[in-house]
Amino acid sequence: MKCKINRNAAKVLKDMLSQEGAEGKMVRVIITQNHGDHGHYDVILDDATENDEIVETDKGINVLLDKRESLLDGVWIQYFHVPEEGFFITNPSTGFLEK
User: Which of 28, 38, 43 is nearest to 92 (CA)?
Assistant: First the structure.
């Protein structure tokens, strides 16, 4: 499985991982809505399970992706400050986006 992260997202995710109570947690991409051919995504901090693949990114952050969810393979986690601050998660292989 593959996952890309932009520089802004890496900074925000590293900050999340350094917060009190996040010890031992990892970044997980979840599907909040599955429309069959595309999904809507979010990120949370979570523990690894036997269904996860730990994907190492080029920004030094490991991301948990559930191997049973094909819509997670190839996600791109971006964070933008304008026009609205927040994560923007897409999967270019499906042609759709969200958060």
Answer: 38
Query: In this predicted model, what pLDDT tens digit does every residue of 3-52 receive, in sequence order?
Result: 999 999 999 999 999 999 999 999 999 999 888 777 899 999 999 999 99
Number of residues that make up the chain: 99
Element (H, E) at 12: helix 7-17
* Whole-number Å distance between alpha carbons of 1 and 56: 10
Which pair of tokens denotes residue 41? 């995504």
